[in-house]
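Input (structure):
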């Protein structure tokens, strides 16, 4: 759960002098800080001091600036509900329906859809002021009295020093001055209000009272308890009325209707996260594009150089060996490779008696043990191109050393026979071209 911020404006007119009461809750649901009258700049400074970069914002819309009702409409499809809603509440409003922002909440199976009506222009001004904020991520705008918990009660009442908030089981939320509470309850129990109390049924009321207002509210509570078939449960709260509403939101004791619907629908939270990082993403994308351009430019430059060198190689080959006009760099590589193979084969087949004897004699003259060698015979087979040296040596190692020297010179040599005599080794070394 992210950090949460709750704000309730003192006035719905948004300007530089606007002040709000607010409360901050951490990810564990504990209140971190709060204030009764503060501007947005002071609030952002508090967030910075607490190391909070982003925070989910819920605005509590004063119920005095809204009209709540319940409509019973058939069907559950959102498209049909949106089309029928203006006609269902139009007669209840003293304002042109086109200037009103209508929002329907979750359907109550016993009573119908709870509906909230607010002035569209005033709502749009507040919505625009907070939906584009760099630090505050707007999550919802809800009626403040709508957060009051009902549980098994028929009516919840919150008494504070400034006003009284009421939430009924029929999902109607209203705000009253302290002096208007009893006349409103008279209307319920005398049968002139929408929440008319059926005669004979027990009506349960839960009353929340700020600790500082409990003494002054005793007379008001006594008047409420005088109604017949009414049970009253009073709970003293040690926090402000605003903080109680915020805690009810955090604990999700009651699902509230989010006014950010329709044309005021909020973007997904992932979009808000993307808004934070899109500048960095744009820079990274630009850097990637520039690097890709550098790679392409280098590749094009090197390809141009390779083509120039290939064309020069073809020109040089033609000047030395000739060739057709259709000669290309690809063909040139194959032609040169073929010429080298042919030259190697020709060199191997043209290794004659004198070449073999000269190389073998040269390696013999360089041998450190040449005084210990004695040649018996020298034979040459022209068909095989093989020279056979028959000699005597003091050891087999002397024959092997001479053979290796001839091989290192680029010829093929092998000891075809080696026989141990009484005082020497008699062996033959066969020498041929590589």
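Output (sequence):
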């Amino acid at each position: 759960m992210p950090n949460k911020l709750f704000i309730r404006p003192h006035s719905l007119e948004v300007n530089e002098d606007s002040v709000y009461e607010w409360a901050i809750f951490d990810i564990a649901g504990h209140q971190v800080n709060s204030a009764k009258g503060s501007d947005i700049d002071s609030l952002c400074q508090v967030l910075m001091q607490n190391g909070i970069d982003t925070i989910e914002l819920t605005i509590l819309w004063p119920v005095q600036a809204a009209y709540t009702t319940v409509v019973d409409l058939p069907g559950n499809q959102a498209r049909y509900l949106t089309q029928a809603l203006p006609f269902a509440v139009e007669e209840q409003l003293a304002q042109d329906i086109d200037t009103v922002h209508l929002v329907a909440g979750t359907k109550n199976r016993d009573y119908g859809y709870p509906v909230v009506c607010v002035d569209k222009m005033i709502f749009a001004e507040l919505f625009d002021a907070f939906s584009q904020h760099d630090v505050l991520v707007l999550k919802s705008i809800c009626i403040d009295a709508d957060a009051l918990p009902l549980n098994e009660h028929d009516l919840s009442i919150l008494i504070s020093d400034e006003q009284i908030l009421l939430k009924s089981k029929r999902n109607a939320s209203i705000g009253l001055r302290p002096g208007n509470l009893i006349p409103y309850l008279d209307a319920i129990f005398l049968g002139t209000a929408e929440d008319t109390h059926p005669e004979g049924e027990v009506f349960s009321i839960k009353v929340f009272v700020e600790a500082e207002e409990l003494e002054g509210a005793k007379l008001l509570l006594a008047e409420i308890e005088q109604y017949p078939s009414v049970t009253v449960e009073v709970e003293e709260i040690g926090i402000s009325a605003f903080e109680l509403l915020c805690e009810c939101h955090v604990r999700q004791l009651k699902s509230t209707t989010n006014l950010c619907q329709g044309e005021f629908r909020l973007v997904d939270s992932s979009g808000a996260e993307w808004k934070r990082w899109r500048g960095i993403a744009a820079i990274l994308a630009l850097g990637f594009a520039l690097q890709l351009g550098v790679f392409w430019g280098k590749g094009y430059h090197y390809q141009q150089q390779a083509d120039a060198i290939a064309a020069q190689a073809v020109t040089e080959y033609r000047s030395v060996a000739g060739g057709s006009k259709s000669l290309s760099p690809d063909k040139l590589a194959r032609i040169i490779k073929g010429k080298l193979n042919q030259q190697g084969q020709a060199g191997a087949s043209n290794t004659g008696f004198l070449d073999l004897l000269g190389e073998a004699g040269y390696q013999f003259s360089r041998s450190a043990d040449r005084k210990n060698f004695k040649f018996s015979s020298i034979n040459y087979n022209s068909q095989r191109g093989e020279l056979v040296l028959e000699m005597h040596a003091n050891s087999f190692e002397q024959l092997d050393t001479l053979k290796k020297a001839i091989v290192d010179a680029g010829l093929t040599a092998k000891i075809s026979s080696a026989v141990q005599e009484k005082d020497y080794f008699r062996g033959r070394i066969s020498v041929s071209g590589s």
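Notes: The radius of gyration is 51 Å. The first helix runs from residue 40 to 49.
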